[in-house]
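In response to reviewer comment 3 from the previous cycle, which asked for concrete evidence that the modeling workflow produces usable outputs, we include below a single protein chain processed end to end. The sequence was submitted unchanged, and the resulting structure tokens are shown without manual editing.
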Amino acid sequence: MAKPTLSLLAAATALLAASLACAQTLPTVSVSGKATEAAPSLAGFGDPPARLPMQTLSLSAERLDDLGISQLSGITKLDASVSDAYNAVGYWSQLKVRGFDLDNRFNLRRDGLPISGETALSLANKAAVEVLKGSSGMQAGTSAPAGLVNLVVKRPLADDATTLALGFIERGTVEASVDHSQRLGANREFGLRVNLAAARLDPTLRNSKGNAHTAALAADWRISPDTLVEAEVEFNRQSQPSQQGFSLLGDRLPDAKRIDPNLNLNNQPWSQPVVFDNTHASLRLQQKLAGDWRAQATLGIQRLRTDDRLAYAFGCSAADGSYYPSSFCPDGSYDMYDFRSENEHRDTTALDVSASGPVQLAGLRHDLTVGGLSSRFKSRFQRQAYNYTGSGNIDGSAVTPAAPELTDENTNRDERSNELYLRDRVALGADTTAWLGLRHTRLHRESVRTDGSRPTDYSQGVTTPWIALSHAIASDWLVYASWGQGVESDVVPNRPRYTNRGQALPAMKSRQTEIGLKTGTQRVEGALTVFDIRRPAWRDVLLPGFEECSAENSCERRIDGHARHRGIEASADLKWSGGGLFASAMRLQARTEGSSDAGLNGLVPPNVPQTTLKAQLRQDLLPGLQAQLGLRHEGKRFATPDNGIPVPAWTLVDAGLRYTQTVGGQTWTWRAAVDNLTNRRAWRESPWQYEHSYLYPLAPRTFRTSLEVLL
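The workflow returned the following structure tokens.
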């Protein structure tokens, strides 16, 4: 790797050495509270995260509250391997892990069951957000490489508790919530937990006022010491105009210091909010069996309804007849469209049944999990509006007429997936363990336009293995190596331009190799990881005799080359009496390799920072008063696939105070913070979508405050 990578390796090694030193010298820290069971739900093994041969991250609700995170996109503040992938105010969250975009259709879980992330997911009733960093083929039938994100639902607590919260964010956002947990019955065998939250949304971004509401109920019934039944339901709604991104000015990157970060180009008189209506529910049965075996069955449903609307800036038709398909015009003008896709429905139903327990085979102890997952997904759309309304301008002053006519077709989709999986942890010795995973998936997918045209229909079977070996080199230190596969499946669009239209592409298997060093104690957790991910790439290949891929039978979609992401990642979570530090760093070398078009090889994917550093420091100043300081740095990235336009690195600082006091037997927690303390102006991210370059600025300096009362 390059010299900066070696420098980061040295820094990461020093970080872990410091962590070990702290572990040896710091006094014991008493940690209270209900722990989130991150490993069993996300990684599939019952071991603590520090003993797993993979990288996982669990962010508790308390940690999210300290940073004012209420949307999934906010977790990019915390971990160097997680970055933005087109995160606009008022829209659903999109994330990158280790440089790869997570697929919102396949890479999200809710209590371990698949859900669609094409909606605004509420965190009001979530106990934690978990991130699995690495090959996800063992946990998911089909998914983009580099990881999964899992939302852990708040369940009834062992002790009765009620928490009231009220928050304010600069300009006018007001949030309020109630979290109540109670146990009932002669033996407290029944549990209830209610979460209610409401927000008036008025961020610093202009023309984006809205509202959000969440109502959730979770219940459990401990029928006997061996049987537990859990049920929960959640309703949430968000209505808010979304944020239209900026773009390049021809082949020039606009100066972020001259762009008003509060300007929303979605500011037409006819702009309407994006509305997300969501229902989630699940039923879970856990049963202890003979011989330390356990069985579990979980049924989950998700019902989404969306009105997706935007004054959409895309490309530019210049006065001299030139057309800029991937940017705005050099003078800051752009083509504006009235986009409306209303009454979208996305429904997911999933059933997972598994059993786990120990067996003796060939003189070795095996901790086995065997199970099956069956899921169904259905999307139903109506015709949509995508109509030219005139020319806009980057200063937001242009006004165009509405054009809401439904002139374009949409696409309905159906998917059935049946998966069988096996996980095995084999004790090879007192300090050495082998880990095995295998998942076989049979899927069937169909799609058709809303007018009945362009149907596709295909079935496919795929198997994804995973294997790891770990060795405890000391009581609290683990070294491991792993190899695994993930898989993605798609079909060539049924359009006249493709010679292979409507055909299923070969299953695209990604591969990841990872070597890591981990430690985990009550006072310090740390990891140093080197990874190498290879993912095949699809490309539209122009056929001989044609100048562009638009005429009938002019091109073919095929696997051509691969994306290779190699990197080194370091993290440390230090806890000392009166404070702590949570920090991570990553150096990533992401490149295109092996393409038949030599001009593509060696290029860096757009919107992928190559160096990232995140840190959160907390320190008590006085009894009950804690200071908090956050640092975020993301290195240079590129705005276009040809790497012709670099986007500069940026660094910002957040600061806050937290004060906890006891009032009449109640615990009051006051929080006050300033995000982007120095009011740094920069382009936060540069997503490339639909062959177009977008730019999103850093949010300006923002003040927020909240009060939480535990009764």
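The domain at 3-273+280-403+410-710 is CATH 2.40.170.20 (Maltoporin; Chain A). We consider this sufficient to address the reviewer's concern, and the full set will be provided in the supplementary archive.
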